[in-house]
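Re-running the complex after MR caught last week's input typo. The corrected sequence lines follow. Everything else is unchanged.
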Amino acid sequence: MTYFEKTYHTPGTAPGTLVSHEGADLEAVNIRLIDYTESSFIEKELATADECQSFLTKDSVTWIHMQGPMQADTIRNIGSIFNLHPLMLEDVLNKGQRPKVEEHEDLLFIIMSMPAVFDDEINIDQVSIFMGDNYIISFHAGTMDPFDPLRNRLRKKSGRIRSLKQDYLLYTIMDLIIDQGYPVLESLGYGIENIEETLLTASAEKTTLSAIHKIRHQLILLRRNLWPQREALNRLIHGGSPLFNESTSIYLRDCYDHTVQILDLIENYREMAASLVDIYISSTSYRLNEIMRVLTIIATIFIPLTFIVGVYGMNFDIAESPWAMPELHWYFGYPLVWGVMIATVIAMVVYFKRKDWF
Amino acid sequence: MTYFEKTYHTPGTAPGTLVSHEGADLEAVNIRLIDYTESSFIEKELATADECQSFLTKDSVTWIHMQGPMQADTIRNIGSIFNLHPLMLEDVLNKGQRPKVEEHEDLLFIIMSMPAVFDDEINIDQVSIFMGDNYIISFHAGTMDPFDPLRNRLRKKSGRIRSLKQDYLLYTIMDLIIDQGYPVLESLGYGIENIEETLLTASAEKTTLSAIHKIRHQLILLRRNLWPQREALNRLIHGGSPLFNESTSIYLRDCYDHTVQILDLIENYREMAASLVDIYISSTSYRLNEIMRVLTIIATIFIPLTFIVGVYGMNFDIAESPWAMPELHWYFGYPLVWGVMIATVIAMVVYFKRKDWF
Amino acid sequence: MTYFEKTYHTPGTAPGTLVSHEGADLEAVNIRLIDYTESSFIEKELATADECQSFLTKDSVTWIHMQGPMQADTIRNIGSIFNLHPLMLEDVLNKGQRPKVEEHEDLLFIIMSMPAVFDDEINIDQVSIFMGDNYIISFHAGTMDPFDPLRNRLRKKSGRIRSLKQDYLLYTIMDLIIDQGYPVLESLGYGIENIEETLLTASAEKTTLSAIHKIRHQLILLRRNLWPQREALNRLIHGGSPLFNESTSIYLRDCYDHTVQILDLIENYREMAASLVDIYISSTSYRLNEIMRVLTIIATIFIPLTFIVGVYGMNFDIAESPWAMPELHWYFGYPLVWGVMIATVIAMVVYFKRKDWF
Amino acid sequence: MTYFEKTYHTPGTAPGTLVSHEGADLEAVNIRLIDYTESSFIEKELATADECQSFLTKDSVTWIHMQGPMQADTIRNIGSIFNLHPLMLEDVLNKGQRPKVEEHEDLLFIIMSMPAVFDDEINIDQVSIFMGDNYIISFHAGTMDPFDPLRNRLRKKSGRIRSLKQDYLLYTIMDLIIDQGYPVLESLGYGIENIEETLLTASAEKTTLSAIHKIRHQLILLRRNLWPQREALNRLIHGGSPLFNESTSIYLRDCYDHTVQILDLIENYREMAASLVDIYISSTSYRLNEIMRVLTIIATIFIPLTFIVGVYGMNFDIAESPWAMPELHWYFGYPLVWGVMIATVIAMVVYFKRKDWF
Amino acid sequence: MTYFEKTYHTPGTAPGTLVSHEGADLEAVNIRLIDYTESSFIEKELATADECQSFLTKDSVTWIHMQGPMQADTIRNIGSIFNLHPLMLEDVLNKGQRPKVEEHEDLLFIIMSMPAVFDDEINIDQVSIFMGDNYIISFHAGTMDPFDPLRNRLRKKSGRIRSLKQDYLLYTIMDLIIDQGYPVLESLGYGIENIEETLLTASAEKTTLSAIHKIRHQLILLRRNLWPQREALNRLIHGGSPLFNESTSIYLRDCYDHTVQILDLIENYREMAASLVDIYISSTSYRLNEIMRVLTIIATIFIPLTFIVGVYGMNFDIAESPWAMPELHWYFGYPLVWGVMIATVIAMVVYFKRKDWF
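Corrected-run output:
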């Protein structure tokens, strides 16, 4: 996981400079147009952005969605068709933008962060959305396309979504993006539970620590991206854009509630992860205590004994003197030494028992 | 305790999609209707939601309460009788919602979190309440019914509650839900006191740590659920809904005070729990110090002695040389070695005493 | 010290239910009435609350003060004389309320927390005050009476306090309650200084830790009670109650300043206490280092020596072979071994010196 | 350093009670009057406060400055000359006040905290300032007088300060007080750098820890005093007092900027000091690791060797049995044991190398 | 890295006192004038500030940029030409100012902090900018000139920047300054990743700790400087200065977005750095555990064995007694001792296995 994932130009570059995504070519990107009214439905893949122009004059809702690495030319082309500000186009191409909502007279420009779990890594995909009267253009730089359930709902003639305008479509797109957070958090929750169980039942491994660290990193990443999303949604709800129908705003508030709840969960996970580090440190030091207790018990019992037997391994008895280790010559000398040693052991054991070390 | 307890639909599902609770069937759920004025009182269990319709036209206050796992059909049915927005019905069925208050023209929609201790675990039950003119509908997905004291007060003819409208009933329901927090916090308080006593008098166990961790988790869970409840109450008090009688608002403020006080306590408990982790870590490292002191004293006294007796266990005396361990041949060699060893011990003991290790 | 000191009713109890304090009887409680104008002064102990009624019609300021465990009946009686809301009376009896100010048309209801040191424990006494036109009723559930200095000032005919109305009396009562915080903080400050000195000069004891923990607990308790008191005072100052004379408000601001300063000190103490835990942990681990250094020096010097003398304690020389420990037969074998051992010790000491372990 | 340095009266004392500073007498205090217009300049030391009265009626700016421990009588006297509220006079005498600005009709009352390093200790001196039309009265309870540079600027006829009114004088006094923070922070910065260097290059001493703790304490003290000063300045700037000339307010904003910058630095220092504690703890535990590694290497190499030589120190060979230590009788027995021991050492060394312990 | 890098005057110095930068002389500083309209372009280096006067009356945009250590005289000179307040000039010369925006009638005074990596150290250069009608004066006290890309854009006749006024030039300057933060954060991000990898794969070194500490210090430095920059930009955007064209404000908002994003990243880095300290501490204590486990296993196995072989090294057999170590005379005594020892080892190994120590 890298720490700095923002795309940026060399300082001093003119604003609105567009640079193609890495690996971008005409084949890599997928431009899909959906045009619908309550009764009609057209869906097609576009080869070039220009093909969409014929749909714009109609009264139907037109949704143009680009998926994959994008070329600067295509974006510039779309920009000129829909009359979009170069700074906005730069934001579309420069990944890692902060989520935001910009309200203009007859245009809404929204940048959202969509979290996704991929290969046990959490990625944040940027989705940029323009909404004008009767059209939505969305750009998704990621590789996996999560918008299929939405397209299926659009294809059904009886769907409520078909009877409403582009503002409701925008809501459904945003709702889908926000709700991607739930499975991500669910999987993070399982991750934390696993670590917790490992820490409280088994012994701490070094990998446990790096797992906690990784989860903390992912939570920070999520929070950095979703916190401004909350703000953006709030502004959208209270901005009172004329492009928004009054009846759609209750749906937007639902989106806002979901975002707040996801952020609440992230905060809690962060606290639990911090608490897990405490437990990790505590449990290693607890374990050290246990290890040292065993060592100390063994060493403290046997070191004095070894000294005693060392005493009677001395060779002083070769001196012809009554002072030269007379114990060696006693009839019961040997059993007596054993007696002394056993007494020492018992004393030690009693001491440790009293200290509550067993 | 699981970390992610929210029910959610697959991203992209149409808003307002209703899914029955797990284990929901017509027997599991209990629908109870109470209809009262100051003089009349009717209480009955309903088999289907439709039965309530006859009570709605009357001037009396009607309280319909559903308890237990609910079926999507029943909820949809009630929704159509009372003309409730599908998003609200979805909120009723999807457990783990954030507490909130939604004010609509002639309807108040409230989601509350009710904490309950069950089997040493803290559960958060969701209670969803709709209040319209002359009626209240409440949904409680939990298994234990705490509303009996309230029903008893309603049954008494002389009760103040009977002389007032549905807004006062709403207050009593909310008050009861909020006050469930007191016994929960009381039991958490005892838990913290127990751990504190264990840590400060006895020695730290590994289970102590997991007990602290569990309490922290429960406190985080409580806070996440009660913090938005405080906001919701605040909005209810200052919202000035026409469904609320002026004289009821002093009671709501009492509810608000209770919520704030419970949150204050949660914050304090959280701090004390964090302080307990410090104590846990400190006391394990203090204990390690004690263990190491014993080991060091024993080892430092006996290792040099063992060396000394080892010296005179060497076999150099077989060499016919005056340099070959002459001490072994001294008349007072053996007592002299003892003297050296006793002197060593005394020196060590003096050293340790001065270092304040005894 | 207990964590949960709030009195609460079983959830579902009707609001305004009054329960006597534990140990409350007519003897335990002391009702004292003071009635004064600039020229007149009456002070008497009342047997029942009804006796005060004769004083209320007069133009003089009447102060009724109850001290000690209270009976529900007495409170209900006073409530009906002065026309007080049942929820307020419930608050008076249920100890552990959050400090607050409630402004009503011709009544001010104030709950304050008064800290007091008793037997090295910090208690928070609840003082409830009602102020109407020309009267103040105050309830203090604690056992020690701190209001004597105030009564003495009232008894003096020339006192400024006698020439002013009940709002100035309220201020003096609140001022006295708030200023109780200073001696409490002074004693806590000494406590922290003592612990600090112990930690930085002597060695850490296990009792030091529990002393820090206790101080942290007391600080949290104080903060929880005084923080809302600050808010309440602020609201009182800016509320513009008609019961308050303009010239009194500068005095209230002085009260507010004191409260803020006490809270500032509490915050600082909390930080210093947290810093003391760091020092405790650091000093135990520092001490462990010292212990281990001694052990390591002794062990590392003597273990190799013990090995060397062990070598020459082997009995290989009985083999009739030139390879069988020829050293034992050398003329200078024994002094040579001593030389080797002394060289080993010197090498070790040099190594430790370079590692800066002495 | 003491934790509780506030002067306070016994709770219940009448407001406005004045108590002389410790050690206050007429000699100890220094009252200095400066009276100036653009063209005139008078400077004299006053024996009593009454002497200043003759200057007040004039159109010139009069600055009366008291330095040193003050007597209650003198303060009361000044209070009656300038008609100051008793609560203000109490604030002047009770040291340890929170910085604040009080705006009255024709009077500005300001309390400021002036930090000063003295003998490696940081003291906070209280400076109380009254500004009325054409006069400033300032009280400084400390011992060192920092106002000389300011007086020198006043003495110069050409100085800009002489051509302006008392509001500019007030600004220069406040500026001087605030700028005392820079040298204090500079010295604290050096202190932190020293500790940092000690920790990262040499080994941690116990005194290092108490040095960090002292710096943290000083930073907390500074912050507690300067934070409300910032608020007070802000209120002064936006208060729009008629006593303040419009052109002076840009200077006040400069003061405010300095205060904010000093507070920024304090926050950073606090974070760095907290980080130093982390480093202290880490480096002691790192050092412990190193010590234990040495012990473990030595012990783990020599303990098995000592066992081996111990085996061949046994006396079984006296048994006339082919099983009784035949190794002792082998021709190459002794060199073989050495071989085994050297192999053991090599194995251990390889093991430690692989574990990266050398 | 020093902690206190602010230039300040001795407290009591008159406001607006100008002191030359260290090493400032006429050669060191570089004054560059650019004067342009859409069609014309003049660029020249000025010897003295006075030369610029001829350009000011013209309708073209004039940009005067000073780079390097500055002399007080030059600054004073410019101040008098452009009629700048002495406090502003003092701010230009006193490095280490807090970023701010001051709006005056026909002048905008901006101080910005420009981070730059130099030799693995992060420096904060102060850039002071004055914008009046048709002119910009900027002062950069640092040594490296980052403004070349901007000058290149100005030199191109077709550049958008040439067709706009001085407000757009101001934006491009500010944009360039702010965007310097990206490469700095990128390099800090790599630094954190490196430390993370070291900590999680290899073993912790003492230098790792000082690297973390340095990064934390740098992050604090950055945050202290960029946080007020965010505020300043916000004020600029919402200030509605008449010097700013409406169409430029969308560009300013882009600047603001960049600053916020950089601050977001700094916060995250700070959290990750704090988490790294946890890992450092955890991994040293984990490593200690491992070391102690090895020591304990070796010691606990061999200490009892050494005792056993010590027993049979005693010389009691010289006593002519059946109690004197009869084991030595047994036929299978020696193999039996080996048996006992092997059994001991097996028991120990089983014990350790069960304790999960291998």
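None of the earlier attempt is carried over here. The beta strands of chain A are 30-36, 41-46, 61-67, 100-104, 107-118, 121-132, 135-140. The first strand of chain A starts at residue 30 and ends at 36.
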